[in-house]
Amino acid sequence: MRTPVTIIGAGLGGLTLARVLHVHGIPATVYEAEPSPMARAQGGMLDIHDYNGQLALRAAGLMDEFRAIVLEGRQAMRVLDRDGTVLLDKADDGTGGRPEVQRGELRQILLDSLPTGTVRWDRKVSGTRALGEGRHEVTFADGSTVATSLLVGADGAWSRVRPLLSDATPEYAGRSFVETYLFDAETRHPAAAKAVGGGSMFAIEPGGNGKWIGAHRESGETLHTYLVLPMPLDWFAAIDFTDPAAATARIARELDGWAPELTALITDSDTAPVLRPHHTLPVGHRWDRVPGVTLVGDAAHLAAPNGEGANLAMQDGAELGTALASHPDDIEAALIAYEQAMFPRSAGEATEADRLHELMSGENAPHTLLAMLAADEPTS
Ligand SMILES: Cc1cc2nc3c(=O)[nH]c(=O)nc-3n(C[C@H](O)[C@H](O)[C@H](O)COP(=O)(O)OP(=O)(O)OC[C@H]3O[C@@H](n4cnc5c(N)ncnc54)[C@H](O)[C@@H]3O)c2cc1C
C-alpha cells in the first residue's frame, strides 16, 4: 500500500498503529496536540494483558523492549474492607498474564521505534471535514490544514475525527476518580504502604454506595491512588481543587469510618488531588462505513475504566495496521475487516466494564468482587 496514513493522536493506540504500519513499510504521520513527548506526566501503571495488549506489542515487534520494562512482583493483589480487614491477599507468583509497566515507559518504547519525524508535536486538530471520494481535510489550531486519503482518529475521548463517523459524544458516567500520589511510601508512609502491599489494592465500602479506593505500588515506592466517588459533576464543581488542602479535607469527609491507613492514601498525598470524571460512549457504539476514515481506542469506544482501555487501544492499532498491510490495494476492505472485529470486541469489553462497576459498588460488594476473582483462578 502506498497511501500514507494520517493518524491523529500519539497515545498508545495511535503509536501502536504507526509502529505496525512501519513494520510493514507503510508510511504514517501522527499529529499530536501536546507540544512534546515530555509535556505531561503519562499517568501510572498499566497491566498489559496476554490476550490483547501483548498481542499488539508482538505485532509491533517490541516484546523484548516490553519485557525489559516490566515491574516484577506488581501482579500481587489485595482486597480490603473499608476498616482495613484483608479479604484477599494474592502474591505475584510470576505466572500471571498481566505484567505491569509504567505507561510513560511503554509510550517511550513506541516513540523510539518510529522513524524520526513520524510524530508531529504541537499539532492540535480543531476540525475535520469530508472532501469527497474518501478524502478528508484536517484543520489544526494554527489554521493550517492537511488533506489525506486515509485518516485515523486516535485522539481519545474527545476525538475531533469521530464526528465524521458518528454523532455520539461521551456522557458523564455518574462517578469520578480523585487521584493522589504518595512518594517513598516505605519510609514516609509505612502504614499505607503495608495496606497496599506489593502490587494493587482495592478497598471497597460494603453496602452498595459505590465508593472504593484502588491503589498501585509503582516504581520508586510510589503509591498511586484512585478514590472513586459516585457523585454528580456539580457536587465536584463545588469543591475548589485549586486549594489542595481544602479539597482534600472535603474529599476526606466522604471517607468517615474508613481505616486510617486507607484514608492516608488521600489525606497524606504528596500531590494535589486531581479530579478525573468518568465519561463513556454508549455501549456498542458503532458507525456505518465512511470511506477513508476510521477510529481506534477511546475515540471509538470510550468505556468506564476497567484496566482494558489502553490494552484495547493498542490492540485496535495493531489490528488496523495489520489489516491495512493485508489489503495493500483496498483500503476499504481493510477498514471493514478491522471494524467488523473491533465493534463486537469493544462492545463486549464495555459490558464487562459496567459489570465490574456493579461488582465494586453493588449491595453485595465486596463479596461479589471476591467471588469473581475466585472464579477467575485457574483450577489446576
Ligand atoms: C484515570 C484512568 C486510569 C486508567 N487506567 C487504565 C489501566 O490501568 N489500564 C488500561 O488498560 N486502561 C486504563 N485507562 C484507560 C486508558 O487510559 C485509555 O483507554 C487509553 O489511554 C486510550 O488510549 P488512546 O490511544 O485511544 O487514547 P489516549 O491515551 O487518550 O491518547 C489520545 C492522544 O490524542 C491526543 N489528542 C487529543 N485530542 C487531540 C487533538 N484535537 N489533536 C491532536 N491530538 C489530540 C492526546 O493528547 C493524546 O496524546 C485509564 C483511564 C483513566 C482515565
TrEMBL record:
NADPH binds at residue 40. Its main location: cytoplasm. An FAD-requiring monooxygenase active on some tetracycline antibiotic derivatives, which leads to their inactivation. Hydroxylates carbon 11a of tetracycline and some analogs. GO terms for molecular function: FAD binding; monooxygenase activity. It comes from Streptomyces antimycoticus. It comes from the Bacteria. This is Flavin-dependent monooxygenase. FAD binds at residues 47, 103, 298. Residues 2-327 form the FAD-binding domain. It catalyses: a tetracycline + NADPH + O2 + H(+) = an 11a-hydroxytetracycline + NADP(+) + H2O.
